[in-house]
Amino acid sequence: MHLIIIRGIDNRLTEIDINFVSMIVIFTAAVIPVYIAIKLNNNSYSGNNNNNPNLKKLAIMLAVFVLVHGVYHITRFLGFNLLAEGVFEPLSITILIAFGVLLYYNNTPGKKERQQEAKA
Q1: Rounded Cα distance, 112 and 91, in Å
Q2: What is the domain range of residue 64?
Q3: Domain for residue 2, yes or no?
Q4: What pLDDT is stored for residue 105 in this prediction?
């Protein structure tokens, strides 16, 4: 690999090197949402009165997106470009859009909450 920096040698990163580094960084970053999804227990979480039952769903969906995106980089690194571009890239984009929709509706107050805010 071209990751060793030595003067006089072409030390540009290739696409394979970039996918390898991305794969490592993404799976390292996936630890955080996976940990949060495991530790959140909506039934026993009582640290706050504004308990949000969708928080665990959001953490799980974010973790799934990050892991699927990591699998995309693995398949690109291994040379399976058709599988990566045809399956895992659209799948990760779909999961990310679903995460955004769930996040939007999770943060948007419902009809009852809007009525309570209007009364106050």
Answers
A1: 35
A2: 15-109
A3: no
A4: 83
